[in-house]
Amino acid sequence: MVRIICLIVLFKESDIDALKVIECLKSTGMPIKEIKKIIDWCSEGGSSLQQRYDMFLERKTAVEAQLKDKTMELINHKCEYYKTALDAGTEDIHKNNKIGSF
Questions:
Q1: Smallest Cα–Cα separation from 75: which of 44, 102, 47?
Q2: Is 43 a domain residue?
Q3: Whole-angstrom distance, CA of residue 57 vs CA of residue 100
Q4: InterPro entries, alphabetically (predicted)?
């Protein structure tokens, strides 16, 4: 005998919004433990507004620093790329480089 079970889950708009925030925070590298803390604060209501605001300000600063680091990493790489190409007199020196020129 084969038993087929169908499960339909209905989410409220607020559930979807919460999932979007969780996904966003996770994509910034925030640990799940910290994300859970935010969810707990949200369920507390207005008494935790300051904690949530402070946490998002901290996360914003962290993400801005990450973006700057990644941007500077690429810029430094490209400076080195073009410097070595200039020194060699050709970009062919980087033929096997996967990043290459843009």
A1: 102
A2: yes
A3: 37
A4: DNA-bd_dom_put_sf, MerR-type_HTH_dom
